[in-house]
Amino acid sequence: MTSGRNVNTLSTDWGTPRKYVDAVKEVFDGEIDLDPCSNQYSIVNAKIEYRLPENDGLKDSWNEERIYVNPPYGADKERGTNISHWLHRCALANELHQSEVIALLPTAANTDAWKHNIWGQARMICYLYDTRLKFLENGEEGGKGSPIQNCMVYWGTRYASKFQKVFLKYGAVVDILDLQKRKSIGGVKNISMAERAKIRKSAEYNRLKKPDLISLAEERGLSSDGNKADIIQRLMD
Predict the structure, then answer these.
(1) pTM
(2) Which of 5, 44, 96, 115 could pair covalently with 73 via S-S, beta carbons 3.0-4.6 A apart?
């Protein structure tokens, strides 16, 4: 997957700077099990790497212990996805598989993506000291600096103390564990990622026209009788 800032810039693969790859590996005892946003120039060298078109990091399994994510920051119009989908997978992997996940992200604390998937879900955030973090361009240093502040977000429990110790060298580390106890954050109900996944899926189905829902139900061997709501309910069950 083009792990860059804008997936429409297909000529450039944007990679994590070496010092941060080394820091993530230090936290994870020297190994990264999965990189779902890899590219041909990646220096992450995870045990499992997902790259388009062979693998789709938003569809394939994240059932691995130690995951590092440097997601596309822009929208993928072809697939209808954006960074919120990647944040959802990070939080969901931690909830469903107890995966330990670290992601390099733009700081966007006031967005719904953060309210749904980071606040109340993640354990720690490191706000990086780099004023203009320079991503690798096609595996080479010297790229333009990021126009926004970047951070490392950690979902997990087992490596919390190591994350704090290692990343204090690179930024201000904040423990947000207490937010997981709150019923709502920034006006957004704090619910499990499994519940949120159902809500997202229901919204996806509701955006489809009835003929498309009928085709989908028939593909799955389900009855396509009734109104749109009836078909969606069968798809959701």
Answers:
(1) 0.83
(2) 5
